[in-house]
Amino acid sequence: MSAVVTPRAAPSAVPTEAPRDGWAAVFALARFETRKLLTRLPTLVAFTVYVAWIVWHATRSWDDHPALQNVDRVTQSVPPLVGLAVLLCANSAGLRSRRHGTEPHFAVLPLQPWRRTAAHALSVVPAALLTAVCVAGQFTWEALKPGAVGHGSPAELAVGPLTVLLFGATGVLLARLVRSAFAAPLLTVCFLFLFVLGTGTSGDDATGWLTPSVPQLGPTLPSGLLDRPAAWHALYLLGAALTAAVLAVLVAGARHWTVRAGLALTLALALTGAVAQAAGVSPSPETTAARERASVTPEKEQTCVERGRSRYCAFPEWTAWTGSWAGVVDRVQSLAGGTASTQGLVVRQRVEARYGLESDSALAPSATAHQVTVGTEWGGNRVPEFATAVAAVLVAGSEKAASDMCDGRMVTVMWLSVGWQDDPLDVLRRVRLDDSLKGAAVVLAPTDPLLMTSDVTTVVRNLLAKPRAEVTAKVKEHWAELTAPGVTSARAARLLGVTAPKAADTCGE
Amino acid sequence: MRGVTRALMAPVWRTLPWRTLGAAGGVGLLLAATARVSGTGGEPDRWSTLTLLRAAALAGALGLAFLLDDPARHTTAAVPARRPVRQALRAALVAPFAALWWAAALCLAPAAARPPVGDITLEAAVACVLAPACAAAVVRLTDRARPGRAVAAALLAAAVLAPLLLPDRWALFAGTDDVRWEAAHDRWAVLLAGAVTLWATCAPDPLRRRLRSRLRLRRRPPSRSARAGSA
């Protein structure tokens, strides 16, 4: 008889232990779902592509001088794709029991449907954490490069992982709202084209900031001039992700007051973030004034360093690069002759921040004598472009005078600009806009571009074919004649001892 | 055979995944209509219109990936109408609606920013033929009754990864102002031919596999009896 009573007593213990066991089971299920989620093919492919992109992006040879206030926004560009994969997989996991017809089996378990939904929502968190690790890795990699300058913002770095969290939670919510396996792919298509490929709106208005990532990547600016509502945006994303997760739990049948209170709280978070970021979309009057100041009178903001004969003025975040600039100036000057070889220059960093973050507006050439403009980017093509500007100022006297130059002096400018490089022909091709080595072409510079006529191109190529020491000696010997306004490229060629072109220079062609 | 086809028409019509196709079409039209409100300063943007039309085509193609889903696949294998006939019937029943839907999507896109109609229709056709062609391949190569989900996922992955990973020489997703537009559409035409070929190759019932399974059946009993003998 007692044998019958004892088993009856055992079930009475279940209700008292249910809450603790319930949560233990939720966490156990969340662990299982996490493993499933991270080993599904779409997630694996997405993370593989993401890591490959990080490695490719960080090892590009022209990207060895990153500005960290841009790097943090670059980290936002690929996580939405990872998020879409997580959305698909989380949604598919949420519908698995229905798809396999195991829903009735689960109904007999003590784990209620809303707890299972909570486990699905929790399973998205490790994917977001993994994204955070990738973002942190990418940022650290860039920050550890010797040429790195500027400051990153933690709020900008948080956007990538929070996007993954938001998309994953949306997938779980969708599984509870629409019991069709087809809803997630369709939602993915909409998200892909509206949010990821950015066909919807721009970052200039408040609705544009409702999309998960708003990189607004334009020219590099000092971090003090950015004034993006990044922290509010991160709060908005966190609030939206938590709202989606709590709503999914609520839809799955949790009617407890804490869940309702949680929904109200997370909704309040999301709304606070959305409203506050909308208020911060247009720059404050102080920022506008600071941008104006940095664009028009940069000398008031900059610190200057004397190196050799020249002065290098940079915004405080960029002073580490003055050594690289000085190296280029010294090499260009070593090829020059006359007073130009000892002329002290002012190298001034300039930005154009008045037209917003995304507009890539050109800098006007400086009219000040012996002043060279340098931009906020360095490495790759920026180096020969700067060398061209230095050479043009040495030959013509100022950037303004150099931009009107159309005669044989361009031969000397281009020789000074590329003659000192290890592979001058390759550099010459890269610095020309159409990547050619024949005919006329526009030559890029930090301010207005210069023009190489086809004669100049021929003479410069002939010069580059000769030994460097020989040409350098001739340039120094005939410096005054070579830099006299109105000299033809044929005359320059004869002075330098290379074959002269037959036609005359014409810039209007 | 014609009588059988006519008799099949009504049941096939009923088994078509109309709700999925309807949802896909609806989302596609919604995306195409978004092109009217997007763009800066009220002026429709050519690039975003093109991208949204591509999105609409992709949504439609995702719906069509479910076209060959047939829960009764294993029971209908024995009907006298062969699989190519049944698949062609499904396609023929859906094709007029798909054409109407695409015309509507084109009309919804703002006229000022609409890409060349023939070329964008070619792109949409590739997506909408490739999806059921892949489904036909899955049906042919596996025993799955519902290839739709897997094909939709693969198509989605291809649509995300192809613009990212395709080298410049094989570029498909060119802009209307791009010099590669013409060459890209030659490639799209090749892809359409490839998709049609894939479907035509995969539509017939496999003969060889049946042969192989028959051989396997013939081989098995001796081995089982041998094992029984050794025990």
**Percent strand of chain A:** under 5%
Biggest interface, chains and residue tallies: A-B, 24 and 32 residues
**How large, in whole angstroms, is the Cα Rg of chain B?**
22 Å
Number of domains of chain A: 2
Number of strands of chain A: 6
Average of pLDDT of chain B? 84
- Oligomerization category of the chains in this entry: heterodimer
Indicate the radius of gyration of chain A in whole angstroms. 31 Å
Instruction: Extract low-pLDDT stretches of chain A.
Output: 1-18
Order of helices and strands of chain B: HHHHHHHHH
* Strand order across the largest sheet of chain A: 1-2-3-4
Question: What do these coordinates show?
Answer:
The complex is a heterodimer of chains A (509) and B (231). Chain A is mainly alpha-helical and 509 residues long. Chain A folds into two domains: 13-203, no CATH class; 299-496, no CATH class. Chain A contains 22 helices and six strands. Chain A has a four-stranded mixed β-sheet. In chain A, helix 2 (13-38) crosses helix 8 (113-143) and helix 3 runs parallel beside helix 8. The relative contact order of chain A is 0.08. Mean pLDDT of chain A is 87; it is low at 1-18. The longest helix of chain B has 26 residues, at 83-108. Helix content of chain B is 74%, strand content 0%. In chain B, helix 3 packs antiparallel against helix 7. Chain B has 231 residues and is an all-alpha fold. Chain B has one domain (2-230).
